[in-house]
From TrEMBL:
Subunit details: Homodimer.
Family: Belongs to the UPF0210 family.
Protein name per UniProt: UPF0210 protein NCTC13652_01497
NCBIfam families, per the entry: PRK05313.1
Organism: Acidipropionibacterium jensenii
Organism placement in taxonomy: Bacteria, Bacillati, Actinomycetota, Actinomycetes, Propionibacteriales
Pfam families: DUF711
CDD domains: RNR_PFL_like_DUF711
InterPro entries, sorted: UPF0210
Length: 459
């Protein structure tokens, strides 16, 4: 039995892909199954939780095995297999219960049963106002994250249409502080599983902020790509090139990375018998050498990420990645902006340790990326009011600019500026960063709502 030889172009593409996987750390960061729990709502909390467990374990039964099969077939690593669910504040409301920790335990048990790495959706959407159920969920977050291993939580406190719910912002500062305190023996790890958003999106496959939006399909599969090493290596081939050359080089590399993401996503969806959702173009770094977004920016000519010019370099990177990704795949969504988590990016870790980058510079970079203050280790003595004020600043950037912004802040118990927190795995390590020595307590105590900007009403 004979077979036709592959043409030169096909052989070249295969060899390029192998090279990207072996030498440039190309991987699929996550394949995430989104599952609607709307039909699990019940006035009896026990019944609702049983429905939730059964639905997740039925829908996602073959998720991990399917992804492992694709890994073997294509030879590309899929680092995480995850699940997102409908915000639990919506699902649990009918139960009338005053503590949602039991719902978190159910989600954790389901995640363990199907073998995924994380499950997101212990979530409330409170940008315009809060229901009783929203308040119960927010109050339950610290204990829920302390008692579970795989559950991730998120709260949307602002939007361009509604403004910023400053009362909720104050609550979230306290929730972060308490989450860190309850997991002090793990370096405040509970806070690392909690994201506070403005303009949150319902098709985000990344953790800890992923949840399955109410406008999504009953069940779908989405993909989050990686590939900082691919882009950094491509830029090494154009030393001294103009910014036009840099942009074109990034676009071409992003096209290849996104194509791989789309292929994995469509294969997984077909084999699981559910619709394909989106590819999230966000460049997701890790603490490993050669897998850093910061190194891409430094490859453009910055001595260290955080110096003057960093925001402009990040703007070029994000825009070029999106242009290349949009050409490769018509189903792009999620956050689709470079992640710059301090603890999860070796270049960011080094820059923070040297004092090259500060909270102020990271806040400025938020104008370009979706999660500008991500995995920020702060002194354990940081007050809840200061945490809330940092959240408010990030939300203001997102609300005014019609973009998603978010924070993951970790006030590490017992640590102060000059020390380092170790989280392990993909979460990495982070120097403890300084906050302002001046307080914001009276500002946060006002409560109420910061109104939406006038350009919110475009229709």
């Amino acid at each position: 039995m004979s077979s036709e030889p592959m043409d030169t172009a096909t052989t070249k593409n295969i060899l390029e892909t192998i090279h990207m996987i072996e030498d440039e750390r190309l991987d699929i960061r996550t394949v995430t199954m989104g599952i609607s729990l709307l039909d699990c709502i019940d006035s009896d909390g026990e019944v609702a939780r049983r429905k939730i467990y059964d639905r997740i374990t039925t829908r996602a039964r073959d998720l991990v095995q399917t992804c492992q099969g694709i890994e073997t077939e294509l030879g590309i690593p899929i680092i995480n297999k995850r699940i997102t669910v409908t915000p639990i504040s919506l699902i649990a409301a009918a139960s009338g219960e005053h503590d949602y920790v039991p719902f978190a335990r159910t989600l954790d048990a389901a995640a363990k049963e199907v073998g995924v790495d994380f499950l997101g959706g212990f979530t409330a959407l409170v940008d315009k106002g809060r229901t009783h159920s929203d308040k119960v969920l927010v109050d339950s977050i610290p204990q829920a994250l302390a008692e579970t291993d795989y559950v991730c939580s998120s709260v949307n406190i602002g939007s361009s249409r509604a403004g910023i719910n400053m009362s909720a912002v104050a609550d979230m500062g306290r929730a972060i502080k308490r989450s860190a305190e309850l997991t002090a023996d793990a370096g405040g790890l509970g806070a690392a599983k909690l994201v506070v958003f403005a303009n949150a999106v319902g098709d985000n496959p990344f953790m800890a902020g992923g949840f399955h939006g109410v406008g999504e399909a009953d069940c779908c599969v989405s993909v989050g790509v990686s590939g900082p090493g691919v882009i950094a290596r491509a830029l090494k081939k154009v030393p001294g090139g103009s910014f036009g050359t840099v942009a074109e080089t990034i676009k071409k590399a992003a096209f290849k990375v996104t194509r791989m993401g789309q292929l994995v996503g469509t294969m997984a969806a077909a084999r699981l018998g559910v619709p394909f959702g989106i590819v999230d173009l966000s460049l997701a770094p890790t603490p490993a050498v050669g897998d850093s977004v910061a190194r891409i920016l430094e490859e453009m000519g910055l001595e260290r990420v955080g110096t003057h010019g960093t925001t402009a370099a990040l703007f070029l990177l994000n825009d070029a990645v999106k242009k290349g990704g949009m050409m490769a795949c018509s189903h792009v969504g999620g956050l689709s902006g470079s992640f710059i988590p301090v603890s999860e990016d070796i270049g960011m870790i080094e820059a923070a340790g040297l004092g090259a980058i500060s909270l102020d510079k990271l806040e400025a970079m938020t104008a370009i990326c979706s999660v500008g203050l991500d995995m920020i280790a702060l002194p354990g003595s940081t007050s809840a009011e200061t945490l809330s004020a940092i959240i408010a600043d990030e939300a203001a950037i997102g609300v005014m600019n019609h973009k998603t912004t978010a924070v993951r802040l970790i006030p590490v118990p017992g640590k102060e500026v000059g020390e380092e927190a170790e989280f392990g795995g993909l979460l990495g390590r982070a120097p403890i960063m300084a906050t302002s020595r001046f307080g914001s307590d009276e500002f946060i105590a006002r409560g109420g709502h910061i109104p939406a900007p006038i350009h919110a009403f475009r229709n």
